[in-house]
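Please describe what follows:
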Amino acid sequence: MPKDPAKAVALFAEVCDAGFGPSCTRLGEMTQGGVGTPKDATKAAGLYEKGCKAGDADGCIDAGNLVYAGDGVHKDLAAASNYYALGCEAGSAEGCLNRGNSLWSGIGAAKDPTTAADFFGKACQKGRAQGCYQLGIALETGTGVEKDIESAEMYHNAACDRGFAAGCTRLGVLEELNNGGNAKVLADALSDYRAGCEAKDAEGCLYAGNVYYKGTGLPAPDFKSANLYFGLACAAGSGQGCYFRGVTFQQGTGGPKDPAQAAAQFAKACQLGFAKACAGAQ
């Protein structure tokens, strides 16, 4: 935050008028927030657009975010998508990802999974982990691109390495589905599920619990570990995780039977939308 916001506004305005895009963007941010100048979303939008036209990627992203949210200006999803495309062209990984999401979902642009995958690839190349993940999804499902499980695993691995939890989980899923009986691949799948879980991905916890419960690729089932991961899945918001933890309490699998705890877990699963648990919660 500038120590003298009003003076900063004047300086940013002067440099913006001289054609320096980042100053227009910064001035827009101060104007949108009402820092050193009256709050004015419409004026901020114009400054963001000016910064964007001058080649500042942040100006394009700020302009897109403003009209996407409709925060003090007219909500315009198509305009937002176009700003994100301009941001991507100017070097913003966020712009590439957001434009890709728009084309993938058909929100703000005509649905075009092929072009969406291209934008996801650009986001990934620019270091955005979620771009790698989304391209991995396209490749594993063959949506907009030719189905390629090996490449999907590579992109999910890249997402995982960059800290995107769902990438770790999807990598584990593909490894488990395509292990060919290879014990090392199954061990890698469990490791990736656990990595996803540690990064708070509920599905990672759930799938790790399933592996331990079934003993897939292990010498034998490990019910105590299964209970741990089902509990973590439940805590992370997985209704199915709560349900399975309820089942293990009900059956006394990996620990003593506890009908009260089973009912509590079923109730939580039901609240989270896992309909199968609702009968057991009564």
Observations:
- The chain is about 70% helix and 0% strand.
- The chain has three domains: 1-91, 106-157, 163-282.
